[in-house]
Amino acid sequence: MAIYALPHKNTTIKVDGDDVTLTYGAGEVGYITISLSTAQAVTWWKAVDTISGVYDQSIGWVETQDADHGPKTIKLAISKFTDSAHFVFWKAKFLGIHTPTDHYYFVPDELNGKVVGFDWKTA
């Protein structure tokens, strides 16, 4: 498992060796919207868990599997976050076991009013 800072620009990030396109868009102020989609060739289960800072509490979960490529979205109130937070990326691995992989940390106030999109391109 690797730990990274979430980039501040549209780019491709690596998640357990897979390519995931990261995009930012305009959303509703007071909220962070998380969106997960997968390419047509990606059929194994994938998920993003949003964790709120100090107590490592899960406050939002999106997932895709098989022919359901999303996008799956969740809108989270900025008030649910402490001063730090992170995304935990999950994927089905050997024998389909759901496994946490990489963590990407971010400052919630920097994402206030944004849609953060993750498009899983490779499996």
What is the terminal separation in angstroms?
16 Å
Give a count of the beta strands, DSSP E runs of length 2 or more. 10
Q: Largest sheet, if any?
A: 5 strands, mixed
The rounded Rg comes to: 13 Å
Which oligomerization state do the chains in this entry correspond to? single chain
Low-pLDDT stretches are none
Based on CA inertia axes, which overall geometry fits?
globular
Structural class: mainly beta
Pattern of helices and strands = EEEEEEEEEE
Please state roughly what percent of the residues sit in beta strands, choosing from under 5%, 5-15%, 15-25%, 25-35%, 35-45% or over 45%. Answer: over 45%
How are the strands of the largest sheet arranged? 1-9-8-5-6
The proportion of residues forming helix, as a percent range, comes to: under 10%
Mean pLDDT: 95
Summed up, the helix count is 0
Description:
The protein is mainly beta. Helices cover 0% and strands 57% of the residues. It has no helices and 10 strands. It has a 5-stranded mixed beta sheet, with no helix packed on it. A 5-stranded mixed beta sheet has the order 2-3-10-4-7, with no helix packed on it. The mean pLDDT is 95.
